[in-house]
Give the backbone structure.
Amino acid sequence: MAKKLLLGCVALVAFLLIFATTRPDNFRVERSIVIKADPARIYALLNDFHNFGSWSPWQKLDPGMKVSYAGATNGKGAIYTWDGNDDVGSGRMEILQTEPHSRVLVKLDFLKPFEGHNTSEYTLASASGNTTVTWAMYGPSPYVSKLMGIFVSMDSMIGKDFERGLANLKAVSEQ
């Protein structure tokens, strides 16, 4: 009986390890919100990391987080690094591309608790006095992420953070 149970456990683990290889090689998480503000106002908040703390969903998780800025003051070449508690980890963001009032593309490097190299993208679309802001993050899914993804998706891990951040951005933008 114990031998059958052990063989069953080994078979289950082997199945999960093999199944993980069939998972997608990339992930994408995306959320949107409509904000009653001019896209120029919102763009200014997204294109300058000095404003990130005013709407970031992670800032409140570690008020003692160490933040530093380098490179350009804003726009392409602006750099933001953080080092915080276990809730926020540590990493680096760098603005790679901007299109005034419509798009900001950011290279996002997580160092702790897990290393990851992704892209974060903010797009703004204006219509009838409102601006739809879409926040997306995408990147590769290495094997460990694929294995973890069997039990919890990237969308469920960070989707709520994006929703909270967009709600904060809306509150700040509509003031």
